[in-house]
Amino acid sequence: MRIAVTGSSGLIGSALVRSLRGDGHEVVRFVRRAPAGADEARWDPDRGYVDPDGLAGCAAVVHLAGAGVGDHRWTAAHKRRIRDSRVLGTAAIADAVAALDRPPAVLVSGSAIGYYGDTGDRAVDEDAPVGHGFLPSVCVEWEAAAAPARAAGVRTAFARTGLVVAREGGAWGRLFPIFRAGLGGPLGSGRQYWSYISLRDEVAALRHIVDTPSLSGPVNLTAPEPLTNRQVTAAMGRVLGRPARLPVPAAVLRIALGEFSEDVLGSQRVLPARLLGSGFAFRDPGIDQALRAAL
User: Fold this and answer.
1) What's the Rg (C-alpha) of the chain?
2) Cβ atoms of residues 183 and 246 within 8 Å
3) Is the predicted pLDDT of residue 163 greater than 80, yes or no?
């Protein structure tokens, strides 16, 4: 199968490309620079340009590009970058897919459980309404930007991803060194829910969406049982064999992270109802398994 991937240099995208190529699929990586080989194609999401030759013959497109949410403090400029990198990029891909004489069968477009906002102790699945705040508003625009592909008859799924447990990057890429040093502990009250997924389950879930014709619309990519931050940090200490009792006060997080701290301290108890209903089997359903897989 020929599959196009954007965001292929990121944590999830690079793992997905390795997995697909390892199983013999032809992968076209969309890049913003000049292509360095036949397996790369050019796109410029800011200008709405996507090389149609890179999409030609593709059975699927997996769109994962977007600026990191937690890479910088949420200044007005960075919030605009977070929004534009997702909305403009998705619109560019969707328009290019819709313009093809023979469009792909499926577009899997990245999204996030940020769609639901702070759910507190309430468990939510894909039928839950949108939340309130910056990230929910971004997710609404992000998913809406794929409308041209849906209108062209392309099965379109939104991979609403939770916190990816991985050593190489993302939130856990920052947490592992801290906990290895014995300096980890609960963030804020520790009672907020974290909805996580191991990197290998994330990749397997994306591939499952591509291969499952019944899956379209929002699909939550999270492990079956979200845990509180206190439970997660206890598991970190247990798996790493290090103490994990040093709490980080909410006030300190607000000083260090600014507005982004509200999302770190917020609670998201998100369930993967559609993934489970479609027959997906998690390799790492529990936090200890996810942590060990990452290590």
Assistant:
1) 19
2) yes
3) yes
Q: Other C-beta atoms within 10 Å of 14: how many? A: 18
- Can you give the residue ranges of every domain in the chain? 2-165+196-223+270-283
Nearest by Cα to 111 from 92, 132, 89, 133: 89
pLDDT tens by residue, 199-241: 999 999 999 999 999 999 999 999 999 999 999 999 999 999 9
pTM: 0.95
From CA 13, how far away is CA 189, in angstroms rounded?
A: 33
Helix (H) or strand (E) holding 291: helix 287-294
| Cα-based distances in Å from 293 to 209, 269, 287 | 22, 22, 10
Which residues lie below 8 Å from residue 129, measured CB to CB, with a gap of 6+? none
Beta bridge partners of 107: 61, 156
Q: Confirm or reject CATH 3.40.50.720 for domain 2-165+196-223+270-283, answering yes or no.
A: yes
The single-letter code of the amino acid at 27 is: V
> What would the DSSP string read from start to end of 247-273?
-B-HHHHHHHHGGGHHHHHS--EE--H
Neighbours of 27 (CB within 10 A): 20
Quickly tell me which residue has 């206890």 as its tokens: 234
- Which tokens hold the place of 23? 């199983």
